[in-house]
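Support request from a user on the community tier.

User writes: "When I paste my structure tokens into the form, the page sometimes reloads and wipes my input. The last time it worked, I copied everything first. Here is what I submitted, just in case something in the input itself triggers the reload:"
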């Protein structure tokens, strides 16, 4: 039966309004259901379906309308792309409109439990020569078969649907890419934060705490820990735990290589992950399971291919740790392992340096100060022996003993000057240098002068000022102990971008190449202090020519308009 002009116009208006709704809807699943429902409404069909093709041309989705949940459940399997559905999927049949499905030679019948269907209208959904899917309509309600007008209307709907489906897919792809980019940005930010933390310190505890804190915050986990390999090479010891249930994790703080998940990660140097701790036979700390933790990841920490320790994160969440998250953990662990090993080596070097310095001080005290005191004692004994026989000689010997004692006291003060830690006490740099000069004058007979700017260098960062302060302290201590100088000059000045400190003495000087191989002059300390704040240090000296130390540290750049 043909539609009247008024009826066709009404259906076209309804189709246009419906198409506008399709464009608004960007959720693909909801969009597909809406298309099928609209097709049923526009054609008067009892049943409708929409098949969506995958990239390989197979049937990826099949959305139905008109059948109840119970009817769908009775059907043993979804469509397999055979019969009339397969003919449309292969794209060589165009539209299909038939009054009786079973009479068509391409039909293969319905599976058991499928409701009976007779009339069929099938229209492909195409976009730019590419078939996206098909609309299937069965059982025309008001007539024995679908009409030419029905076919025209559904063809128009299929055209709208193609655009809407393509837009929905593009939108989903954009959302997916946006999520990936957001995650990658977060991961890069994490790696940058951890890289900054690892490069800003050589303190082992600070490196481990910062790394673990950043990882836990990024992955939103409740606990984390770090095991380090002991010197025996076979034992891993828990050195740090952060987060919740500390008492549960500390129930086991040592593992042998290969023992439990921690030992396995150490032995294989590969990540070990458990998504179901309550069922995992490798779990050796049942208290952790009882505390509600569901997952744990153990990541080896390595440096130059050698095992340093194991980092673990644990969570009560059921959401599995993804491959991407595991890759980030492995990347972080690689950098952290190297930083931890460097910190341990630095600590060992520092310990050896302290021992060498103590040994040197002991030798200096024994060979110098103690021997001087012993010599004073002998002089006093000789003075006592001749006191009555030759009072004038005894008086000279007593005076010499007093001079020797005063010189020994100065030597002891010089050691105290070198060993006593000093800080800037809320002073400007020039004020702090003035205090060092005053103490130096009190403990030595060396003439010393200080020249500096009236400007307090308020834009010089405290850490930069402290570096220059300590360099001056160390230089003065070296002069007092080694230089045999009579004059020292200290000059502080500044340029637009840096503060400069020059310390010059007219003493004995030294062989710089030989001195740099020892710890006696503290040259490495000076270089390290100024390098840590982005500055530099230069030493000019030679035996018999005195010494000049020039150090500089950056100032904060001034802002325009200030």
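"...and here is what came back when it finally went through:"
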């Amino acid at each position: 039966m043909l539609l009247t002009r008024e009826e066709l116009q009404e259906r076209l208006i309804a189709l246009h309004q419906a198409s506008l709704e399709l464009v608004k809807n960007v959720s693909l699943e909801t969009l597909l259901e809406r298309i099928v429902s609209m097709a049923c409404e526009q054609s008067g069909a009892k049943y409708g379906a929409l098949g969506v093709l995958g990239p390989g041309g197979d049937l990826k989705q099949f959305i139905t309308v008109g059948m109840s949940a119970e009817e769908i459940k009775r059907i043993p399997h979804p469509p397999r792309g055979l019969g009339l559905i397969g003919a449309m999927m292969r794209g060589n049949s165009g539209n299909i409109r038939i009054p009786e499905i079973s009479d068509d030679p391409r039909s293969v019948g319905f599976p058991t439990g499928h409701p009976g269907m007779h009339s069929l209208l099938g229209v492909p959904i195409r976009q730019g020569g590419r078939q996206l899917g098909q609309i299937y309509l069965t059982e025309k309600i008001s007539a024995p078969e679908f009409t030419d007008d029905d076919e025209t209307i559904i063809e128009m709907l299929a055209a709208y649907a193609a655009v809407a489906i393509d837009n929905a897919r593009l939108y989903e792809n954009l959302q997916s890419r946006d999520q990936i980019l957001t995650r990658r940005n977060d991961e890069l930010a994490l790696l940058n934060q951890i890289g900054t933390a690892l490069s800003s310190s050589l303190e082992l505890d600070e490196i481990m705490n910062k790394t673990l804190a950043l990882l836990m915050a990024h992955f939103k986990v409740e606990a984390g820990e770090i095991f380090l390999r002991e010197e025996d090479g076979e034992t891993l010891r828990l050195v740090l735990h952060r987060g919740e249930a500390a008492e549960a994790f500390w129930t086991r703080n040592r593992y042998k290589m290969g023992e439990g998940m921690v030992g396995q990660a150490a032995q294989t140097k590969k990540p070990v992950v458990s998504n179901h701790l309550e069922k995992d036979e490798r779990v050796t700390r049942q208290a952790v399971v009882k505390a509600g933790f569901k997952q744990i990841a153990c990541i080896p920490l390595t440096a130059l291919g050698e095992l340093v320790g194991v980092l673990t994160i644990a969570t009560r969440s059921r959401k599995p740790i993804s491959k991407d998250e595991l890759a980030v953990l492995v990347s972080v662990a690689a950098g952290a392992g190297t930083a931890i090993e460097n910190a341990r080596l630095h600590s060992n070097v520092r310990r050896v340096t302290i021992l060498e310095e103590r040994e040197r001080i002991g030798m200096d005290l024994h060979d110098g100060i103690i021997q001087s005191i012993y010599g004073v004692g002998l002089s006093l004994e000789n003075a006592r022996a001749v006191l009555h026989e030759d009072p004038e000689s005894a008086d000279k010997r007593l005076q010499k003993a007093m001079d020797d004692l005063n010189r020994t006291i100065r030597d002891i003060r010089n050691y105290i000057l070198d060993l006593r830690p000093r800080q800037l006490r809320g002073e400007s740099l020039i004020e702090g240098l003035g205090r060092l000069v005053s103490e130096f004058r009190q403990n030595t007979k060396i003439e010393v002068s200080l020249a500096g700017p009236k400007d307090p260098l308020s834009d010089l960062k405290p850490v930069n000022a402290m570096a220059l302060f300590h360099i001056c302290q160390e230089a003065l201590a070296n002069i007092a102990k080694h230089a045999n100088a009579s004059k020292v000059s200290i000059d502080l000045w500044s340029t637009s971008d840096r503060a400069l400190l020059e310390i010059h003495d007219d003493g004995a000087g030294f062989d710089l190449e030989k001195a740099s191989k020892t710890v006696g002059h503290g040259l490495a300390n000076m270089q390290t202090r100024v390098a840590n704040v982005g500055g530099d240090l230069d030493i000019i000296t030679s035996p018999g020519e005195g010494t000049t130390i020039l150090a500089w540290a950056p100032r904060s750049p001034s802002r325009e308009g200030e």
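Agent notes: The reload is a front-end session timeout and is unrelated to the input. Residues 510 and 543 are 4 Å apart (CA to CA). The chain has 15 helices and 16 strands. Escalated to web team.
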